[in-house]
Amino acid sequence: MDKLKELGLQMEQQMKDSLGYDEKTGLWYDKEDEEVTFNEEGIRLSVYEDLKDTLNYLYSECAY
Question: Count of CB atoms within 10 A of residue 50's CB?
């Protein structure tokens, strides 16, 4: 579980590194489309969904 948590935190940081940050609003934004913004919760949710989709794909054969 610790490695999974560490992976999630690493993915959050990678996502933040790929985005721009607006200190005035406190939001991260897509550098290619500045209208797309994320707050801290949005970044965590994106990482969660990515991890969930990956695990579902990797273990899809086990579900049936």
Answer: 13
Question: By C-alpha distance, which of 14, 41, 15 is closest to 26?
Answer: 41
- Is the entire prediction scored with pTM above 0.90? no
Phi-psi region of 12 (alpha: psi -120 to 50; beta: other; left: phi over 0): alpha
What amino acid is encoded at 34 in this protein? Answer: E
**pLDDT tens-digit map of 44-62:** 999 999 999 999 998 888 7
Helix (H) or strand (E) segment spanning residue 35: none
User: What single letter denotes the amino acid at residue 61?
Assistant: E
Q: Name the strand (E) or helix (H) holding 28.
A: strand 27-29
Give the CA distances from residue 40 to residues 9, 27, 30, 35, 46, in Å, rounded to whole numbers and listed in that order. 12, 8, 14, 16, 10
